[in-house]
């Protein structure tokens, strides 16, 4: 969308503000999901180490890693989703800066017209 009028500037800033507000909630939810996934993984890993008897610590740890691969994967996916939300929020912030610059240009055009 090309922004050429003050009304378009206002519309775009309102849209970006709404996106930003939604992004804050999405980031909270993503951070919560990471914490929950990390907690589930850590619990599962500790239980897996405890269930393996005998062998060296390295063997027990390797077996526990195998036993908890799904939990670790879920934890990694939660972190990826959180990072995606953070990137989207950064993009929204950068778009706000761009629209602010454009709004100044639109203002100058209307002053000189």
Number of helices: 3
Radius of gyration: 24 Å
Measured by DSSP, the beta-strand proportion falls in under 5%
> What is the residue-mean pLDDT, rounded to a whole number?
92
Q: Spans of 5+ residues with little confidence (pLDDT < 50)?
A: none
Largest sheet: none
List the helices and strands and how they pair.
Elements: H1 6-51, H2 57-67, H3 69-112
Overview of the structural elements:
This protein is an all-alpha fold and 113 residues long. Helices cover 89% and strands 0% of the residues. It has 3 helices and no strands. α1 crosses α2 and α1 runs antiparallel to α3. The mean pLDDT is 92.
Task: Summarize the model shown.
The chain is mainly α and 113 residues long. 89% of the residues lie in helices and 0% in strands.
List keywords for this structure.
single chain; 113 residues; mainly alpha; 3 helices; rod-shaped
């Amino acid at each position: 969308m090309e922004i050429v009028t003050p009304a378009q500037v206002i519309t775009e800033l309102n849209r970006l503000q709404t996106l930003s507000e939604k992004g804050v909630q999405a980031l909270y939810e993503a951070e919560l999901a990471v914490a929950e996934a990390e907690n589930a993984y850590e619990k599962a890993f500790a239980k897996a180490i405890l269930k393996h008897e005998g062998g060296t610590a390295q063997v027990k740890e390797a077996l526990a890693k195998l036993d908890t691969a799904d939990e670790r994967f879920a934890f990694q996916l939660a972190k990826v989703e959180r990072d995606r939300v953070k990137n989207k929020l950064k993009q929204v912030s950068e778009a706000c800066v761009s629209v602010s610059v454009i709004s100044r240009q639109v203002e100058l055009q209307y002053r000189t017209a």
